[in-house]
Amino acid sequence: MMGEIGRWAILFLLFVVPYTFLMSALGGWLKNRRLAAAGRAGMVAAVFLATVASVSLLYLLVTDDFRYQYVVNYSSSNLPLIYKIAAFWGGSAGSLLFWSWLLSIYSVLASFLKHRQREVMQPVVTAVLSAILFFFVLVMNTIAHPFELARVQVSEGNSLNPLLQNPSMMVHPVNLYLGYIGFAVPYAYGIAALLTNQTGATWLKVTRRWTLVSWLFLGVGILYGSQWAYEELGWGGFWAWDPVENAALLPWLTSTAFLHSAIVQEKKGMLKGWNMILIMVTFVLTIFGTFLTRSGLLFSVHAFANGPMGTYFLTFVGLIVIFSLAVLVWKWPLLKGENQMEAVASKESSFMINNLLLLGSAFTVFWGTMYPIISELVTGEKMTVGAPFFNRVNVPIFIGVIVLMGVAPLLAWRRSSFRLLRKNLILPAALAVAFLLIAYILGLRGWLSLFSFASGLFVAVIIVLEFVKAVQARQKMTGEPLLLSFFRLFQRNRRRYGGYLVHLAILLIVFGYTGASAYEVNVQRMLHPGEQMQVGAYTLTYEGLEETGDAFRTEIFANVIVEKEGQRLVVMRPEKVFYTLGGQPSTEVAIYHTWLGDLYLVLGGWDEKTDAAVFQAMIFPLINWVWVGTYVMIAGTLIALWPERPRLEESRDPGLPKTLQGAAARGR
After folding, report:
1. Residues 534-571: pLDDT tens digits?
2. Distance between CA atoms of 162 and 579, rounded to whole angstroms?
3. CA torsion 297→303→306→311, rounded to 10°?
4. 0.85 exceeded by the pTM?
5. Which residue among 455, 515, 546, 591 is least enclosed by CB atoms within 10 Å?
């Protein structure tokens, strides 16, 4: 019953979404409010139908209804409830339904946004979003049926891939989808701004929170995926420059550039064309990443099975590019900037350089990802590039971006004083140079890594000094206690100081990845029970193997005692898990966490006769700073997103002269 309801809901979407597009497009073209309202009503109906279909599929998964092929492929009766829910987006057809459901929710919220130019822009926004939604509805009704009946009736399913049976499956894919899909809204507003000749800063102000939320979801999704790979896959890494990993990184880089250059347009009326190009590129890259995941064009551990869907997505990408370029060329005269850059030492110039660096990194990642396809087309031989290429090119670029993170807040709009800039940079630069000298004396090598640490220290000192100066100034003006002044900085200028927190989070992430990748310790040994191995300052003693499990899985784990300087710390139990339903066994690593780094232990294999086992033990310095930085980034972004209270209006008193009203506002 629920399966049929879901199937009919998806079928009805095939008619409701085009209706929404037609009413919205006509409403925008004819400036007819009734038609625009009909388009919004159609989008509400689309949300309802997508929700019905999504609930139906979830019901089938939770109740183990193996009459449906999707349930057979991605669930089983013994699968824990949390993973039955995760199976909703664990397969290709289900993930498309999940995408459509989220996009319909985003679209209906965007369609009802209130702003000054709502009546002009809203119908076009709804039309663009419904056109995007129609593509996914069309795919679900033609080649990726979530409610297809099972080809052979069975009493048990194949279960979810063991590698996906991790709590991160509830976080990583969901955040990526929320990030990917969210960029459709600023893209739709950008197109609406062009088609309605409203190319001022209004569309940027309306979509700033949409863009920031999507940027946050995508960044958190990438970082959670990194943590998932680190803890689950057992290869001792956190970023492999895999094609699908790169596909997620690309729109994050371009959206980061867009967020910064949008500030320039809001403040100075500059970079209008640049911002329009950036949001178009960002949205195209989100669909392109989905194409890579489903095309089978490049090998990736993240990809779905090969099939005709890749052709559909590539066609869709092509249509978006052609349409976006056509609108951009047609309306380009409207994107002329209101001002020109006056000096190299200015905030506008620093943001532009930051954009160029981020786009340079994005182009490098794109080129390296697509190189196997390009080389095969040109030479007939598929050649790949690995992590050394990506690291060699991107690390210097990222160091440049980090340095700009520190310098840009100190620059003024239009033109900055070199004398004042030099005064503000002396202490941070001196501390960074001192760090490099001390590191060299202590024998630390790897200049790129050291420069990464030094540039991060340089920026961190600048940000801390900015907080100190602001708190001191506020205390002097208001007489508030230290902590109260600090917290009220965020209350009075959430966007600025929330941004500083995000920058500090990026530094923590950079420190963590740099320490873990540049100064990793890696030891591999075969041990018999009772034997020891030394890994850095840790002594590991192998005690032997044990076996446990149930009717569905068998777990074989090793007991390893960890000591440091003669003191017993913990017993680590790395394991291998074998599944009754077949498939490759999964590796469950054991990790001993500290603030200075992780001890990471993998059980590679063993001799069943002697219980001798092969272990790979690694130390990843500072890796936990990455995960801490993730939560600092979330906190900083939420602060920047939170609406600020109006100042002047709140302080106005009809009995005060206007000059005193302004003074009261400034003193609040």
Report:
1. 999 999 999 999 999 877 788 999 999 999 998 999 99
2. 8
3. -60
4. yes
5. 546
